[in-house]
Amino acid sequence: MNSCIQVLKKVRELSEDLKKFRGLHTNPDKNLALIAALRDTYKLLEINGEPVRPLNLVVVSVNI
User: Fold this and answer.
1) In degrees rounded to 5, what are phi and psi of residue 61?
2) Contacts of 40 (CB under 8 A, 6+ apart)
3) Is the four-CA dihedral 50, 11, 22, 5 of positive or negative sign?
4) Terminal-residue alpha carbon distance, the chain
5) Neighbours of 40 (CB within 10 A)
6) Is the pLDDT of residue 50 over 90?
7) 8 A C-beta contact, residue 37 and residue 57
8) Exposure of 38 by Cβ count < 10 A (0-12 exposed, 13-18 middle, 19+ buried)?
């Protein structure tokens, strides 16, 4: 999962669109929840600048 996140983070268009996304990771639509969880993981990476545990992303991914 770490490698996938790193690769996806390099896609500028994806990063820009995720910043505009307003959904929640608790959304009953699992696809929207996954998008929100990825967006939240990106935010943590930008704020922290250190490794983070993408727990919301893992939880949502498992439930799909």
Assistant:
1) -60, -40
2) 25, 56, 57
3) negative
4) 15
5) 20
6) no
7) yes
8) buried
CB 21 within 8 A of CB 37: no
Share of the chain above pLDDT 70, in %: 98
What pTM did the predictor assign?
0.83
Instruction: Determine if residue 27 is left, alpha or beta; phi over 0 gives left, psi from -120 to 50 gives alpha, anything else beta.
Output: beta
- Pull the structure tokens for residue 16: 């820009």
Nearest 10 degrees: CA dihedral of 11, 61, 24, 28?
140
Q: How far apart are CA 19 and CA 13, in angstroms?
A: 10
Mean pLDDT to the nearest integer, 34-52: 87
